[in-house]
Amino acid sequence: xxxxxxxxxxxxxxxxxxxxxxxxxxxxxxxxxxxxxxxxxxxxxxxxxxxxxxxxxxxxxxxxxxxxxxxxxxxxxxxxxxxxxxxxxxxxxxxxxxxxxxxxxxxxxxxxxxxxxxxxxxxxxxxxxxxxxxxxxxxxxxxxxxxxxxxxxxxxxxxxxxxxxxxxxxxxxxxxxxxxxxxxxxxxxxxxxxxxxxxxxxxxxxxxxxxxxxxxxxxxxxxxxxxxxxxxxxxxxxxxxxxxxxxxxxxxxxxxxxxxxxxxxxxxxxxxxxxxxxxxxxxxxxxxxxxxxxxxxxxxxxxxxxxxxxxxxxxxxxxxxxxxxxxxxxxxxxxxxxxxxxxxxxxxxxxxxxxxxxxxxxxxxxxxxxxxxxxxxx
Length: 378
Ligand code: PLP
Fold this sequence. Notes:
The chain is an alpha/beta fold. It has 14 helices and eleven strands.
């Protein structure tokens, strides 16, 4: 079956008892022991639930994996991927990545005994040089948050394999519509379902998909079931409803982002645009190779500093200044002010999650905002 068909059908058969086309929601926390006599059914919702299983099966199918595990947030998924390593293990991570992960490394996992080295993942020599005998995982995030850097997934997976380490990819920004890291040699894919998979800014969730039924994935499953950081059945249902339209949404958002990036790239008040769809972007060549389209996330630096960037973010009429991404609404955010000291984001950088409004309206709002900020010239 093709990708679009699997987004609607994988893990989501017509309900046998009622014939319902839309998946029923199963809020039950417990299941009859008789129905689970062979151990293949459900028992207790922390350990497994029909809606969670449907979500796991569908995303696993879209990523081309062997099995998947869903969590209550993207961060719970990432935390589980790290907890499934051993204290004392070494992890290589990108210097530009979702700042929550950087905080997790610093505040939780260094205390737990995990050693983390950050490198510029676009510099393959630097990645190879960071490998140590105790390196157990190379974590990638591509395109990255917020500098939209593009990592060569196949090359980094190769470095990891030669080191006997796992390669994981946070595929939240690209989605499996545009990029399938397991096909490029990764062992594990992670998503914040809160973003494009859910797609409507109304549900939190996370998922890990493994290429194989490895011992490492068995650990992930055990942490999920025993630790219990699981999404509710309703949240799984909402995410899966979003996934059904994922291919259509993402492609339309890519079209809009390309138009917005071109306008910003041409605008006299914009210093620089970070978007791999622009031929001048350093990530363009690799993105063209490993992604089907260039995504709908971009960042840009305005001329001036934090004052001008904040004035623009707060002065738009259609686009809210708000965190998060991947939903139907276009959102803009000043990242340096939320990420704190370790942020890679310059003071004059704004991140844009391009939504599903008409591109003319998104562009008109950005244009009027830029004109307003620079009224009188600066
Ligand atoms: N990974 C990326 C790339 C993100 O942008 C985010 C959140 O913004 C996360 C992970 C964390 O996901 P969640 O907010 O669902 O915990």
